[in-house]
Task: inverse folding
């Protein structure tokens, strides 16, 4: 009897130990290259919220993709036929058995709550660090940023695993391993602007020579549009980037623009943050008539944010995000493909998502390196299912032609192929001798090209913002993205007022209507290095099709 019992216990241990390791394509944490410093182990009772992406069958995934392109293409008969989250669940058809099996595992491990998304393909787990470490066989640590000392995140220093019996039912558990890029402090305070235009924030002398709301109105030919009750826009903020109502009020008074936040999801603390207040003040400078939602999350979690906006049946139609990393810094293609699945759900539901293209030129956060000398494309900017926004400078000290900003992210994806909507534009760029292409060994000739469009964001004339009780100048594609998002929010208002659906995924419309943008034909995004991509006539991987012309776009929607 004893020997039989021992045998059963051993067998049970063997079954329990059969786990599948989810290996990243890069080291989860490298102290030599990371901007994050590993601190103490996370306390066992520390509460976590993790996203589990349940596997979608290939047939359902293909159907989602097909519908995504149909409803996003202005030339298709089903353009604008967007679906609800519940209708997306019917497209995905995730088997109930699969959902139950994965949910049961985490409940059995000790999760306090397991919530299923409306599309029935994502679980949100509430659990303690002790439970997470046991369930996923990981070690969780607190990490702090080397420049932004108050910003803390929790990550695993090791890859994770799942029992064999559910591993095939899970695509990814995130975000356990990704380390977000935070803007360098050296780029934040740029108080010298070279512009010779009048200062429309006239009570603030610091704004002289900077980009202000009036500069955008003139350059991008903005005009007043009527507010539409159902039309909304949003910005995403993370890691202590709050806003201060007093800052927004001061900006509104000084710059003669009604800047206010209508809805907050995730909470706010009245301390202000440069990134958040840049986003808010300038998306509202462009589209003051469109109600604004701020979606806040303490930890940067792209999957959590994306799944949250698609789970909300009344989600704003336009979302601007100024955060991202390099493709090489993701934990593998599965993570990026999981993000793409959520982006496709967003497009099917009629949402437009815009991401800043990054502020490190073609070399990305990783740098080009001394041995491989390879460009590093940004993600999610390189995703074929979102709209990437690059940055420009004015050519002279006057409001007029723009040139590519040397630090603006752009190039070609190492992970995603060229999508159909941009195939002709990308081929035209590569065939143009003026492109003066960098050595082929440095970039992927078959990858998705980005950005799609651009807006002012360079250091020549920074944006003037009210933040944390002060007035400062800020540069980066973090400014470009909310500006372009505001333009498309205004365009949605025009469409909705005339009885049309919102634009949804923007890129097919953009690539079919290049005349709606002001072409940028000079500059290169080399970030001061030997190689980069040239801005030339037509689409290019430095500025896309150029910067918005609202007057022209309003006639095209």
Result:
């Amino acid at each position: 009897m004893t020997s039989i019992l021992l045998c059963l216990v051993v067998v049970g241990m063997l079954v329990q130990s059969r786990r599948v390791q989810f290996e990243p394509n890069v080291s989860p944490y490298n102290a030599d290259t990371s901007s994050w410093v590993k601190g103490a182990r996370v306390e066992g009772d520390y509460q976590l919220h993790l996203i589990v992406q349940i596997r979608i069958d290939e047939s359902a995934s293909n159907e989602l993709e097909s519908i995504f392109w149909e409803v996003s293409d202005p030339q298709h008969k089903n353009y604008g036929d967007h679906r609800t989250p519940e209708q997306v669940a019917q497209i995905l058809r995730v088997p109930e058995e699969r959902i139950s099996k994965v949910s049961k595992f985490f409940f059995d491990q000790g999760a306090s709550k397991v919530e299923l998304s409306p599309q029935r393909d994502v679980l949100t787990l509430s659990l303690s660090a002790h439970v997470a470490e046991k369930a996923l066989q990981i070690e969780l640590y607190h990490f702090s940023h080397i420049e932004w000392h108050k910003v803390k995140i929790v990550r695993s220093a090791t890859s994770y695993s799942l029992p064999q019996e559910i591993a095939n039912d899970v695509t990814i558990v995130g975000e356990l391993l990704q380390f977000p890029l935070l803007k360098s402090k050296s780029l934040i305070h740029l108080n010298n602007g070279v512009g010779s235009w009048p200062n429309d924030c006239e009570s603030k002398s610091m704004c002289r020579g900077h980009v202000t709301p009036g500069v955008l109105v003139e350059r991008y030919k903005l005009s007043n549009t009527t507010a539409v009750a159902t039309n909304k826009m949003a910005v995403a903020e993370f890691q202590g980037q709050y806003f201060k109502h007093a800052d927004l009020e001061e900006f509104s008074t000084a710059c003669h623009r009604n800047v206010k936040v209508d809805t907050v999801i995730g909470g706010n603390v009245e301390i202000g943050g440069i990134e958040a207040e840049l986003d808010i003040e300038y998306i509202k400078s462009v589209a003051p008539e469109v109600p604004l939602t701020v979606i806040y999350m303490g930890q940067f979690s792209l999957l959590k944010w994306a799944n949250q906006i698609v789970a909300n049946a009344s989600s704003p139609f336009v979302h601007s995000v100024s955060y991202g990393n390099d493709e090489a810094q993701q934990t593998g293609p599965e993570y990026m493909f999981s993000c793409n699945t959520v982006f496709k759900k967003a497009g099917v539901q009629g949402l437009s998502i815009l991401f800043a293209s990054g502020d490190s030129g073609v070399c990305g956060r990783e740098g080009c390196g001394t041995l491989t000398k390879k460009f590093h494309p940004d993600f999610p900017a390189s995703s074929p299912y979102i709209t990437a926004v690059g940055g420009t400078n004015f050519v002279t000290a006057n409001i007029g032609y723009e040139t590519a900003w040397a630090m603006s992210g752009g190039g070609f994806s190492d992970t995603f192929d060229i999508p159909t909507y941009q195939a002709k534009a990308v081929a035209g760029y590569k065939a143009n001798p003026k492109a003066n292409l960098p050595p082929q060994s440095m970039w992927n000739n078959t990858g998705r090209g980005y950005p799609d469009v651009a807006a002012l964001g360079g250091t020549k004339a920074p944006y003037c913002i009210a933040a944390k009780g002060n007035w400062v100048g800020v540069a980066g594609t973090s400014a470009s993205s909310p500006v372009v998002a505001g333009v498309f929010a205004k365009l949605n208002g025009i469409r909705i007022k005339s009885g049309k659906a919102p634009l949804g995924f923007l890129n097919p419309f953009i690539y079919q209507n290049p005349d709606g943008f002001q072409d940028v034909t000079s500059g290169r995004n080399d970030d001061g290095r030997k190689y980069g991509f040239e801005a030339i006539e037509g689409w290019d991987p430095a500025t896309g099709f150029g910067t918005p012309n609202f007057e022209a776009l309003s006639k095209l929607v």
Remarks:
- Confidence is low (pLDDT under 50) at residues 1-17.
- The domain at 185-556 is CATH 3.40.50.200 (Rossmann fold).
- The chain has two domains: 20-55+94-174, 185-556.
